[in-house]
Amino acid sequence: MEQHQHYQSLQDQAYNALRSKIIYAELKPGTRLSAIGLEKETGIGRTPIRESFVRLREQELVETRPKSGTYVSKISMERAENACFLREKLERSVLIKCCSAATPEQKHRLERILAESESLDHSETRRFFDLDNLFHETCFEIAGRHMLWDWMKSINTHFERYNWLRMVSQDLDWEPIRRQHRRILEAIKRGDTDTASYLAETHLHLMPEEQGPVIALHPDYFEPSKDSAI
Prior knowledge:
The protein is mostly helical. The protein is built from eleven helices and three strands; from the N terminus they run αβααββαααααααα. Helix 2 packs across helix 3 (46-58), helix 4 (77-101) runs antiparallel to helix 10 (193-203) and helix 9 runs antiparallel to helix 10. Keywords: DNA-binding, Transcription, Transcription regulation. Residues 8-75 form the HTH gntR-type domain. One of its GO terms (molecular function) is DNA-binding transcription factor activity. Pfam families: FCD, GntR.
């Protein structure tokens, strides 16, 4: 049992490390992943690394090419759009639930996340990105739907990758994101379900007009366009 848990821990380590590198564009699309090379780099055995490839392939972060190897996949805007649509619908119910379920301590936790986000400067993009996700994850937790957040992470990968490139590809103004988070928190504090519902439907649509410039800056990161937009 202990040996199995240790193996599972190594597999999780390999998976989490590779997933992070792909989400944050440290591993670019088309990069070939070598279990031997990653074993030398990480000190994790080849078997758990290969098993992590299976999980990454299920999340469409990598693809296996016959007689060639495993490669980091390109970003599919179609999948990103669908993930954005799904998350928007789920967050509407989640934020409505937060209005009635959030305890004073949980509201204070959201306040701390937002306060740190508001204190960051533009040299701390990754921390801002992580706090953005943490704010929403905490809302799912407050609503008793953290399992849904974990599930959504597995289908949200193309949306996350696009969102990260959007953050780092241009001089993105963080203030609209911060303002909407602040409005969401104030709605939760007031128990204002109408405002929370409205903000859930609009918050994820701060970025559509930026899709074209991001793809233009990183054309090799994306699958061929199907003329769709988030």
